[in-house]
From TrEMBL:
Originating organism: Streptomyces nondiastaticus
Record lineage: Bacteria, Bacillati, Actinomycetota, Actinomycetes, Kitasatosporales
Signal peptide (from-to): none
UniProt keywords, alphabetically: DNA-binding, Repressor, Transcription, Transcription regulation
Protein's UniProt name: Lactose phosphotransferase system repressor
GO terms for MF: DNA binding
């Protein structure tokens, strides 16, 4: 097996399992750990993986995106803390956009139930979870349903959104970086997110630390478009400060 074949094998494994370990890769492929580290460095330079201490995880791209079911198994305690902090930011907002994805779904569950709220979402999972909760009114955006994320996309979705003025939007992303802003792999998803950013008075990005520094295919917003970023404490404090210099308040929970 040459180096290119080995890297393809490493990438396939990373995408199938969610992360890879240097020691196990070295044993599986019968090469030195330093060889695997070199492979991962090359793959990171090409935007395919992100290095971690002792391993790496895949970066979502135009050719690869995790499913909603997979996201429910990763960094769950961190996502729950992020959701709780997001719920505390609602303030006097009466209309709220909740993005697709598992973290936004948890945010929907953390919304206050003491007064009427109107929640706009493209996520079937979020709409279903809130449908029977008074005093919340749910508006589900129409469009084509993406099987992997159970969310609507397309012209109908963005057209419906364009007719709203929303008080507060909770937005997710597949990657966020100071260089490339907020990104996602699929252009049709990017269009929905960009429209939500345009029609919302306040915008909050919520995502775990692994999103930071990653860049995907389609940019839909800049870091400076957001008033608040909520993430977990695994994002180093100096890096959080660098994002805060771009405009948003950064909350680590």
């Amino acid at each position: 097996m040459d180096a290119e074949e080995r890297r393809r094998g490493v990438l396939e494994l990373a995408r199938r399992t969610g992360s890879v370990d240097v020691g196990k890769l070295a044993a599986d492929f019968g090469v030195a750990k330093e060889t695997i580290r070199r492979d991962l460095s090359i793959m990171e330079a090409h935007g395919l993986v992100r290095r971690t201490h002792g391993g790496a995880y895949p970066v979502e791209s135009a050719g690869y995106e995790t499913t909603l079911a997979f996201r429910t198994t990763r960094h769950v305690p961190e996502k729950q803390r992020i959701a709780a902090a997001a719920g505390d930011l609602v303030g006097d907002a009466e209309t709220i956009f909740v993005d697709e994805g598992f973290t936004p779904q948890l945010i929907a569950q953390a919304l206050p139930r003491v007064r009427p709220l109107t929640v706009v979402t493209a996520s079937l999972a979020t709409a279903t979870s809130l449908a029977n909760h008074d005093p919340i009114t749910v508006l589900l955006l129409g469009g084509r349903v993406r099987g992997g994320t159970l969310a609507t996309v397309g012209h109908w979705t963005t057209h419906m959104l364009s007719g709203f003025v929303i008080d507060l939007a909770f937005i997710g992303a597949n990657g966020i970086s100071r260089e490339h802003g907020l990104t996602t792999p699929d252009p049709v998803v990017s269009e929905v997110k960009a429209q939500a950013v345009r029609v919302s008075r306040r915008r909050v990005f919520a995502g775990v630390h692994t999103k930071f520094g990653a860049g995907s295919f389609c940019r839909f917003a800049e870091v400076s478009d957001f008033e608040t970023i909520i993430t977990d404490t695994a994002l180093p404090l100096p890096e959080a400060h660098r994002y805060s210099l771009m405009g948003p308040q950064v909350i680590r929970v």
